[in-house]
Amino acid sequence: MIIDRAEVIVTSPDRNFVTLKLTTDDGLTGIGDATLNGRELAVVAYLKDHVVPLLLGRDAHRIEDTWQFLYRSAYWRRGPVTMAAIAAVDTALWDIKGKAAGMPVYQLLGGASRNGLLAYGHASGKTTEELFNSVRAHREQGYRAIRVQTGVPGLKSIYGIASNATYEANTGVRYDHEPAQRGALPSEEDWDTRSYLRHVPAVFEAVRSEFGPELPLLHDAHHRLTPIQAAQLGKSLEPYDLFWLEDVTPAENQEALRLVRQHTTTPLAIGEIFNSVWDYQQIIREQLIDYVRSAVTHTGGISHLKKVLDYAAQYQIKSGMHGPTDISPVGMAAAMHLGLSIHNFGIQEYMRHGAKTDQVFRQSFTWNDGYLHPGDRPGLGVELDVDEAGKYPYVQAYLPFNRLHDGTVHDW
Questions:
Q1: pTM confidence score
Q2: Closest by alpha carbon to 6, among 56, 46, 40?
Q3: 159 is known as an active-site residue
Q4: pLDDT tens sequence across 257-304
C-alpha cells in the first residue's frame, strides 16, 4: 500500500482542529490529529512544507520505519510542533492498517485489556453552589470520577472555570468546550497563589461533605506553583483522598517533584505538555509521578506514547491521557484504542465536544455508565466529513495568560 495523497485539513466548528488525511493507491484512507492549541498553523506549515512531500510514495504499512524516518531525519528532534506532526502521520497510518486488516486498532495493539475506559469529567464553579451543581450535572451524565476546579475569592477570572467571567463577557457563553478565545490577542486572567492555597482545601472539604468519600476527585494546579507551594497543597489535600493532583509545578523543572514527593502522599499526574519519552525519563525512573498525562496527539502518536507507557509500567505508573476538547475526536479515538489495550491504564480525561464538531468528525465510540469504548469499526472508528469541515474555516484563537496583582506575567 503506497501513500499517493496527503491532505492537511483545517476546520473550526467549535474550535480549531488540524487533521492529516492520507490516501493509499488502493483507496484506503487514514486520519490523524495534529491540533496544537493556539499554535495550530505552525503544525500546518510543518506538515505541508516539510512532511507531506516525504510521505508520498512510502509504504503505508511501514509505521515504525516512517516514525523513525520523520523523527531522526529532521535532525532537530522533539518539540510540540514536530511531535504533533509526527503523531498525525503515525495515527493516520494505524488507521489505515486497521482498515486494511478489517480490525479496530486496539486489536492490532494486542487486544483489549479491559471492557471499557473509566473517564473523568470537568466540574467547576465560581462559587461552591455553582460547583456543586456542576458536580451533580456530571454525575447525571454518567461520570464516575470528576475533576474539581474552583473560583478563588478576589480573583476575577482563572483557569478551569467554565463560567469564566472574562470569557462570558467577550462571547456570551460558557467555555465548557474551549477556553481558547477567538480574536487577535489572548485574554488576560489574574492570579494569587496565597489566596488559592488558602481556599482550595476548604472547597474539597465541602465537596467531600456533600458527595461522600467514594467519588474519585481530581484537581489541576496547572503549573502555577513553586515546589514548596506544590508540596503545601498536596499535604493540605491529603485528608480528601484525591485520585490525583495534576501539574503542580512548571513541567520544565523535573527535580522540583523530588521536594513535592518528600512532603505529600497525594498522587501526582504530570505531562500534558510533554512530547517525548525523554521528558519522562527521570521522573519515571525516580518514581516521582503516578500518572502519565500526555496525549497521543502531542507525543508522537500511538507508537511513541505506547513506548512511554510501557516504560512507566515497569514502575507501576499508570496512564491518564490528556483529553479535553483541544484533542480532536481523532486524537481521542487514538487514546481510547491505546488505553483499551495497555495493561497500566489509569483513567481517561473526557470532555465532550460540541455538536458542530460531532458533525465534522463522525465517531463510533460509546459512553456507557462512566466508561468509554472506541467501538469495533476497522481502524480508529472516526471519519472526517470533508464537506462539513469546509463550512468552518480557521479562526485565530489564543489560550489566556496570567498576571499577578503587580503585573508580572505568571504561568497559566
A1: 0.95
A2: 56
A3: yes
A4: 999 999 999 999 999 999 999 999 999 999 999 999 999 999 999 999
